[in-house]
Amino acid sequence: MEINFLQAYKKMILIRIAEQEIADHYLQNKIMSFVHFYVGQEAVAVGVCDALGKEDKVMGNHRSHGHYLAKGGDLNKMVSELLGKENGLARGKGGSMHMIDKSVNFIGTTPILGSVVPLSCGSAFEQKYNKKDGITVAFFGDGAFEEGIVYETLNLANLFKLPLMLVVENNLFAVNSKLSDRRSPEYDIEKIVSGFGVSYVKADGNDYEDVFNKTKKIIETVRTGKPAVLECIAYRHMAHSAPIFDEGYREEDILEKRQEKDPIKKVKQSLLDSGIKEEELVIIEEDTKKIVLDSIKFAVDSNYPPKESLYTDLYAS
Ligand SMILES: Cc1ncc(C[n+]2csc(CCOP(=O)(O)OP(=O)(O)O)c2C)c(N)n1
Q1: Comparing C-alpha atoms, which of 69, 71, 91 is closest to residue 82?
Q2: Which residue range forms the structural domain that includes residue 184?
Q3: Rounded CA gap, 250 and 54, in Å?
Q4: Ligand 1: nearest atom to the Cα of 111
């Protein structure tokens, strides 16, 4: 699997434009349901998923639009789920934080912080137990990494030598609380992870190439049953949970820094350096915007789930 900047650019632009248009749609239609945008972190989802195979399974958290689209997901189904429509990923009953699409091995997202970690461990256990090809990858944040279940899972993952890769997207905040408000100065993620015998790699989450190359390398050993944590330092450009941009509490990731280190800008520069013309990239952006607007229209025109299905697909009734 070789690096392909054009393919990466197309995917990252799709995620970025989709979220920007969805954010506009929420604002214009006064949609008040929770939605956590991924803008700024695209290099992580695309860098990791581009290094995976179709047989590899991916799970996510409350901020997973990017993970799903990077794994090859269907935008029509995703937007429909966000708008609560019956042809959505969870038949319109889950919303933005509960996405699942087994057709692309995207096996679920869970918004309870840290809960995706033991679930992904179970998936990796099943893959190993049934001698299947493929690994399981779970995306979650720096805040979620502080949940106790993560440490129990690191222990089990290495005890059972599972093909599990945990991607910690460290965007410096959990809601508005910064790392130094939550962790002692001695807190050292590398030491914690290594202490369980799990491999640890750190990547620049603003840099697609770095994420792709490090993922590609580390998953070779993950496939042999050596679990790993990939920590990606990235910037979340938007508010924690709203279709708006917010400032005020930021320190390192101020607007100018976010613009300077924008992961899409970096991939775009690599393409221009390789001889691709700016106009070609503009056409890709325009085509992508059309695809996104069509998906939003598709979702708006779709039906809500029928009343009779109120009690189906539920764990409890
Ligand atoms: C167990 C639990 N506690 C609190 C919350 C509320 N909550 C939702 S997202 C979030 C912050 C998550 O931060 P992080 O894991 O770093 O991910 P990010 O939002 O930065 O991507 C919190 C506290 C929750 N969903 N689950």
Answers
A1: 91
A2: 5-309
A3: 38
A4: 25
**How many structural domains does the chain have?**
1
Q: Phi, psi at residue 193, to the nearest 5°?
A: -65, -45
Residue 178 placed within a domain: yes
Distance 297 CA to ligand 1 centre (A): 31
Structure token pair of residue 299: 């979702």
In this predicted structure, the answer to whether residue 317 has a pLDDT above a threshold of 60 is no
| pLDDT value, residue 316 | 62
Residue located nearest, by CA, to atom 3 of ligand 1:
113
Contacts for 130 with CB less than 8 Å, ≥ 6 apart: none
Closest ligand 1 atom to 63 CA: 21
Distance CA 187, CA 256 (A): 29
* Smallest CA separation from ligand 1 atom 25, residue: 112
CA of 60 to the centre of ligand 1 (A): 12
- Residue 274's Cβ-count burial label (10 Å; 0-12, 13-18, 19+) is exposed
Q: What is the pTM of this model?
A: 0.97
| Distance from the alpha carbon of residue 242 to the mean position of ligand 1, in angstroms | 14
Written as six digits, the tokens of 251 are 């320190």
The predicted model gives 154-182 an average pLDDT of: 97
314 in a structural domain: no
User: Is-contact 104 73, C-beta < 8 A?
Assistant: yes
In a domain, 196, yes or no: yes
Q: Whose CA is nearest to atom 17 of ligand 1?
A: 141
In angstroms, the CA 309 to CA 305 distance is 7
Task: State mean pLDDT over 255-278.
Answer: 97
pLDDT at 277: 97
- Asked if residue 315 belongs to a domain, the reply is no
